[in-house]
Amino acid sequence: MREKPQNNLNLGVIFLPIDIKEKKRLTRKLQRHFDYKNVYYTFDNDTVSLGGLYPFFVNFMSLLGIKDALTDNVHLRRKGRLYSNMEMFHILADSIIFDIERIEHIGLLNNTLCQKIRGLKDIPDPETARDYLETFTLENIEELLLANKEILSKVQKFTGPQEVTLLSDTHVTTVYGHQENAEVAYNPKKHGRPSFQPKVAFLHNTGWLINFQLCGGKTTSKTDFESFIGRTIALLPKDSWLSRVRLDRGFFSEDTCLFFEAKQTITYYLKVVVNPKMQGCFARIPEEQFTHIEGTPFDLAEAYYRPDAWSKERRFVVIRKLAPVRTKDKHQKSLFELPPSYEHEAIVTNADDDETKEEIFSSYNSGCQVENFIKELSYEFYIDKVNSQEFTANSAFMTIKCITYNIVQCFKQQILKDMWKTRSFKTIKNYLVQIPCNVFRYGRGIRVSLPSSYRFKEVFQRSEERLFQFAQGFL
């Protein structure tokens, strides 16, 4: 029987306790045979950190008056606190900026620059962060939204008065434990799992988040609709006024139309839930009333229509496209040429007659950006990460994430600009924030030393100039 060849390489030898001379001899042998890299590790440097543009974020937050906004509006009752309310807010906001998904990992924030900038000796442990969030009440969460309004109002004052369009939608957040108020309801990705149903409202032109409300999974878009929209209007930044609202089909009802018609100055664009009776009615619209939208598969027509149980007819913009032909046998030709079959959608609106159906279609479609805003909140600010079993604690942390999202949006628009204005926050974190650096005391300030090979030096220089110009507007 043929013997198996013996392997003379003893990999276990380097794990045995050996003296320094023997280790050096073995290392030289490994270098000769395997190009083995001899790397020495020491843990004695207290100046290395991750930072990049982080100090600019901190200065920008100071200019927006976050400290005053939170102190004046949010009144938490905490006892025996080692960290102030302001310090805890900053720590949670910084954890998002440094791409920390969960409270359990908040210890990763323990870097030199963050501590020196914030004046902290240590970063709180996860339990301290949870205790802070669990002190919030529903009233405190409303106070956070008032602070958010005050922060956005400062930026609005800097940019000037503006007419705004509101986008509102809901989002399913799946949970995997026994969270308070989580309910089993509609869940397109995780069927049968309990979930929350957050309601959000954004401004179309800036992407700012105006209102956020965490709800149980059985909540729908129409649940307490008037209360949510009324609160949203009250939370708009100063020097801005609402002129248009774009709503998805989840809000479709005559009550929604009546609510905005009572406001008189607000134009709504509401997606219609097309039932079979509407489908038949829209199919009878004469062909000559349809016009094709170039570059799309859609034809448009308009009609005044009264759905069942509605008190009056309203203006509907009907959208149709060819329905896909489904045949049982693709190789079998039809004896007769079948007439085209269409699928119909519609938008109901109270827009003036001088606004054409093409303009209404464009106005509604531009509002689809709300889905991208929600995705950014989910994937880059971790709004879907549920960190506590208590409902108010989860709602509080999500609201803090929303405020951080707004700060980042304003920073991109006012300071970064150029191509970075449209970049995702994940890209900004990877290229501009999570950059290794050395941190030193420099007179009354801090010196941050970045690698000489760093490719985005000009971004830092331009951002510093813009931040300084932005700051002068508050003097």
How do the helices and strands line up, and which of them pair or pack?
Layout: H1 20-34, E1 48-50, H2 54-63, H3 66-73, H4 85-97, H5 112-118, H6 126-134, H7 138-159, E2 162-170, E3 173-174, E4 183-184, E5 194-196, E6 199-203, E7 209-213, H8 225-234, E8 240-247, H9 254-263, E9 267-271, H10 276-283, E10 291-292, E11 299-305, E12 314-322, E13 342-349, H11 357-366, H12 369-380, H13 391-416, H14 425-433, E14 436-442, E15 445-449, H15 457-472
Parallel strand pairs: 2-8, 8-9
Antiparallel strand pairs: 1-14, 2-6, 3-5, 4-5, 6-7, 9-13, 10-11, 11-12, 12-13, 14-15
What is the makeup of the main sheet?
A: 9 strands, mixed
CATH superfamily of the domain at 142-323 and 340-393: Transposase Inhibitor Protein From Tn5, Chain A, domain 1
How big is the Rg?
29 Å
* Helical fraction: 25-40%
Strand percent estimate: 15-25%
In CATH's first tier, which class of the domain at 142-323 and 340-393 applies?
A: Alpha Beta
Tally of individual helices: 15
Mean pLDDT: 89
Number of strands: 15
Adjacency order of strands in the biggest sheet: 7-6-2-8-9-13-12-11-10
N/C terminus separation: 91 Å
Series of secondary-structure elements, N-terminal to C-terminal: HEHHHHHHEEEEEEHEHEHEEEEHHHHEEH
* CATH structural architecture of the domain at 142-323 and 340-393: Alpha-Beta Complex
Poorly predicted sequence stretches spanning 5 or more consecutive residues: 9-14
Shape: globular
CATH fold topology of the domain at 142-323 and 340-393: Transposase Inhibitor Protein From Tn5, Chain A, domain 1
- Classification by helices and strands: alpha+beta
